[in-house]
Amino acid sequence: MKKKKMSITFNAPVTLSFVMICFIVTIIGVVTGGRSTWLLFMTYHSSLSNPLTFLRLFTHVFGHSGWSHFIGNASYLLLLGPMLEEKYGSKELLEVIGITALATGLVNYIFFWNVGLCGASGVVFAFILLASFTGFKEGEIPLTFILVIVIFLGQQVYEGLAVQDNISNMAHIVGGIVGTILGYNLNKMSITK
Q: What does pTM read for this prediction?
């Protein structure tokens, strides 16, 4: 019997590409002292006549404030992303990332005028809520989903109201809402197929 040769596979192209882009953008941000992050990878209230304002509504998910911010998000993305990409498909996961980026960017632009937003935390929370739907069946609500809502999003609401830190709880909450809506719809579509 022949032994199969071990090889490294690019098993989750969207997840791996997303994390690699975030990694490269973080390196560039560190090298430029954060100027590149501020210019291209952070959304904030800027003039609508500036085309970069619209670009940053999507690209802010690639920028991170430093290595610990990047590593925290990358860990969750690499843990959850491959499973979600296998279940839902690469195209759908790319849509989740894009919709989450736009939703968090718009909410930040409209409601938090004095706050710059960067990082993949909203995408991470979308992935967390999306993952809690993996066992979804018609007419049932997974207990894991309820517990994730209570624990993860409950913590974000509490910290958003009671803790003054530099973490965008809004992005986490909006990302969780996007993950919930898309998780429900994606699973409903897979059941009806």
A: 0.87
